[in-house]
User: What shape does this take?
Amino acid sequence: MIKLHNLYFKPFISEQELDATVQRLVDEIVNDLQDVVPVFVGILNGSFMFVSDFVKKYPKPCEVTFIKLASYEGLKSTEDIHRLIGLTQDLSGRKVVILEDIIDSGNTLVEVHRIFENENVDELKIATLFYKPEAYKKDYKLHYVGMEIPNKFIVGYGLDYDGLGRHLPAVYQLKTRQHMTNLVLFGPPGAGKGTQANFLKEKYNLVHISTGDVFRFNIKNKTALGMLAKSFMDKGELVPDQVTIDMLNAEVEKNTGAKGFIFDGFPRTNAQAEALDELMNQKDSEINAMIALEVDDEVLVGRLLERGKTSGRKDDADESIIRNRITEYYKKTAILKEYYESQDKYFGVDGVGGIEDITERLNAVIDKL
Assistant: This one.
């Protein structure tokens, strides 16, 4: 992650990918032009790195020149194209290839074609390293395209944000935080976490992702991840964190239009919490809060013993097992409490009282996030 001025950018295209793409463009153009000595025209400022790498890879004689146009103001490409440096040589009868760093709206191409309409060139072709098909609004043909990319702002490899970032050897994409509410919901056995999760997902239009439910679904339906998880479980081994994260990622991907998620049963360790942070970061989002329902141990024991009379669960009928489950919960939660407290994201909520009262307390926390 890098910061330029007030904005953050995340890695998007590596140096190796750029090098391979430039080489492919060189190969295509060499094959097309054969033994013709072309004139490559770079569009400054953004194309200087691309042009430099391109001509170094070009295996045959060629000429290089530049024109300088300006269209960007901050993050937006404007309709008003300024010609700052024009052509300084006669290109009559020559084959000209424009080397452009990026084509989005196509406004720059209008000015390029205007410049060359009276130059009497033999042929004018357009080569661009990056192309945003979603943004392109013109009819000019693009003869060589290095890479199609989404319509998101990028920097690096000659491209800048308000003057900064051109020097970066790789390309970075603007990181835009999505307006989502993502919660890690915790509570000891008997705290009423499941009940409250149902209320919260309805009120805030969130998707409730229970790790236990996700595991059962994948194993029952014999998905690749489910079978992989089962192979560890059958050997009595812990399922690797990455397998669980991949399952959660699949659930998140199923609900791309969600306003947020409630993660229930995950994370359990610092490593898992860090993995979840990275997963949400990849979605241009984040965990907003860890909310833990806090209930006195004796109240929990009483609730679970009462529940055991009707639930049929053996672990709800044995007080020693209940107390051990509660102890294990605190051991795990204490670690995560420190993790989220360090980010000012831990919120303890009184879990004793009527269901509606507890819901109101949870709402009060979430509404301030």
Remarks:
- The longest strand covers residues 63-73.
- The radius of gyration is 29 Å.
